[in-house]
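Interim report, section 4.2 (structural modelling).
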Amino acid sequence: MNIQNNSAEDKELVIAAKQNPDAFQAIVDRYWNRLFFYIRRMSYFTQEDIEDILQEVFIKIYKYLNDYDDNMAFSTWVYQITRNATIDEIRKRKARPTTVWLEDEDLLKVMKSSFNLEKEYITKESIDKLKNIITEMPDKYREVLILRFIEEKTYEEIMDIVQLPKGTIASLVNRGRKIILEEAKNKKII
Amino acid sequence: METSPSKKIIEKIKQDKIIPRSKMFLNWKSYAFWTIWIFTLLLGAIFFSFIILNLLDIHPMVFRRLGLGKVFFIFFRTAPYLWIMLAVLAVVSGFLAIRKTKRGYRYSIIFITSIGVLAISLLGAVLHMTKINKHLGDRIFIERGLPREVAFPEEKRWKSPGDGMLGGEIITIETSNLNLRGFDNETWQVYYSKDTELRIKDMRSGMIIEVIGERIGGDQFRAFLIRPFPFERRMPAR
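Predicted structure of the assembly:
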């Protein structure tokens, strides 16, 4: 219900923003934090870098407002543009993220998708090891796992964000979970 | 006091006089790829209709007379490889074009390929039923003098008396044989008898026929079956 209301509000805001740029401010306010954390989870960029990327992203969203159609949620479309801009920026800097900015809580969300981790067994050392697993993971798996288990997107939404068929998304998620499980066993976390 | 990011963005939009771009401007590439897809389907359908021409050139009666093994051997030697290759290329190009459209990533390889194959087959069958394929083939290859043997290898089948298949134009008809001008402008004596299966009513000079039988030496051929070609044939100039 809440999601549907948000989606309806988004659509109204888009219509208003096409007429008057001031109405676009509500869209920026609505998505700024969510997208900020999304970029941070995907990259190693500093706060200033992320803010610069976001500024470009929102200006692009404004320019492309007429490209948005009702076939997908507005939030999905916004994530798609943000994801593409972030990947472009990573490519421009020609460096793969050497570390991933994940809160412990986020990290555990991803891990719980693959195995049960009892809270009492979680130590600083195991958290570091888990972070390594995520960092060393190929980008294509890490990206869908973040979207699925931290951003809590559905397979359809992830399909539109990363622009790959749904079947491919499902296999990337499954393969990613298996990698985590295997690596956790190798590193003797479980 | 620091300005909020959203205010900064709105100020920049106003300052740079940025306006949302038109839907047409943003989607022209996607529309172009949809057009390419339709174009590849049309081309694929034409290629497929040429494949149909090749496949239907062998009447089931030929199987009965020559045997399955021999017919398959002849068929593989004279299969429409050029058109099969081009039809596959059309399906692949269509797939790549769809993938480049705005929401092309949503469709799986199997889905796009199935739709492409289905559309090409149906449209190809329509082109065949309306005889557009035959007309197009004649116009492109005969009138422009392009090499027909590569495009329509089925014509080679009827120049294979050693394999039991002969085709050509009747020159004269005698009581027990007929003179036939083959597709390479050579002359054949074709012998027939009461045992020959004659599938032509009112056989006369000038008719272009196919003959199934066996070569009995030199330019002599014994007919088991004589019938008209399923599609109109043109003889080479003398």
